[in-house]
Design goal:
The structure is a single chain. Helix content is 61%, strand content 0%. The protein has 92 residues and is an all-alpha fold. 16% of the residues are buried. The model has no long low-confidence stretch (mean pLDDT 84).
């Protein structure tokens, strides 16, 4: 969920309206991002979008240096916002 122009987060009501609007009129890509963010927030307490903006793993919160990752790990981080260690731990 995007911050307001004053830097604050939207209220739960505003967030719910934005979610409903995206689900009703958003593109498939917007809906997929919304779903991934909602799932990450419920599971890890942070959205995948916010984790990627901060350059951290959505699970362990460690810094993810994309320059040091393999092409495969970079691609996976772009999809899941999980570092390679957490990805292996969760999906192995």
């Amino acid at each position: 969920m995007k911050k307001k122009s004053d830097g604050s987060r939207p209220s739960a009501t505003e967030a719910s309206k934005a979610v409903a609007e995206t689900l009703a009129h958003g593109s498939p890509v917007e809906k997929r991002v919304l779903f991934k963010d909602a799932l990450a927030l419920a599971t890890f307490g942070i959205t995948a979008t916010d984790a990627k903006k901060q350059g951290i793993c959505v699970s362990c919160r460690s810094i993810v240096d994309l320059a040091t990752l393999s092409e495969e790990d970079r691609a996976e981080y772009g999809i899941s916002a999980l570092c390679s260690g957490c990805f292996e731990e969760i999906f192995a």
